[in-house]
Amino acid sequence: MSNNNAAIVELSQTANKYRSSIVLQAENKYIDVKSILGLFTTLVGGHAYELHVHGPDADEAKAELATVFAKHNLNVTVVD
């Protein structure tokens, strides 16, 4: 399993712990982070991503997902 695959699985599993809507914006595409398939087709190195989280547990989700992105050296900005 490549590092990218490990990142995708961990991001999806982390996102699925939360009730909030968690969407990753990559250029003009919006991907549901809870969808492994969506992440596989989008998450490639070198891109800058924006993470949009809305819902009852958004603060916790943002904090944990930011940690996972950083751990895998993915460039993400968490949007408030």
TrEMBL record:
<feature type="domain" description="HPr">
    <location>
        <begin position="10"/>
        <end position="70"/>
    </location>
</feature>
<dbReference type="InterPro" id="IPR000032">
    <property type="entry name" value="HPr-like"/>
</dbReference>
<protein>
    <submittedName>
        <fullName>HPr family phosphocarrier protein</fullName>
    </submittedName>
</protein>
<dbReference type="Pfam" id="PF00381">
    <property type="entry name" value="PTS-HPr"/>
</dbReference>
<dbReference type="InterPro" id="IPR035895">
    <property type="entry name" value="HPr-like_sf"/>
</dbReference>
